Write the structure tokens for this entry.
Amino acid sequence: MREKDTHHLRNDYLKRIRELLFPPRCPVCDEVLGAQDRQRLICRDCAGKISFIHEPRCLKCGMALEDETEEYCSSCKKRRHIYDSGLALFEYSPLRTSMYRFKYSGRAEYAKFYGRAAARYLGEQIRKWQPEGVIPVPMYAPKERMRGYNQAELFARALGNELSIPVYNDIVIRRRKTSPMKRLNARQRHVNLKNAFIIGRNDVKLRRVLVVDDIYTTGSTIDAVAAVLKASGTEKVFFVTLSGGNGI
Ligand SMILES: [Zn+2]
Ligand SMILES: [Zn+2]
């Protein structure tokens, strides 16, 4: 047997052991996926439960519009954003517990499903934006070490991989701890994020960037990342998030 074949066999074998120990699970109900569902990365029942955010969407933040005669949502009418435009993928409520497990319960493997879904549903628009790189919203390093991963980065890597766009996790870094944004109003969010991000390396200059995060609420975080990128010469900043909406 040639060395290459043995190598393949060993990889196959390791993959099977890994699947026995950590069988792939449905990202929505968390049940172990049956053989037929493994290609789809989601079980049949749940595939019918999830829904994508669809038109009419706000031209700026991409969130669902209630009134299709409007171009912008009420939030974007009130406030100017630093980013150029963006889109969220899933409606929030069916994916809520999935995203929670992805973020806090070590279900890093969901990233593959999320990345593929984003590439399929939003890939055409992302390609039109022509991003030269994908930048995940960074976590504060000590916090990331505690959690073991940055969920935004896992999603960014899965998406970048599907669309063959390089992912950079060191161009923007978070240099200090920020309070959870949930209970803060827009003004407090702005203060909370002030100077939170800095450019970590300047040997890579990207003119067009896709910023990736898990949830979009007011856009303060994406704006804060866009601000440091634009100050360092990036011309266009777009974003994709797993989910989003006002008031979540
Ligand atoms: Zn399921
Ligand atoms: Zn909007």
The chain has a mean pLDDT of 91. The longest strand covers residues 208-216.
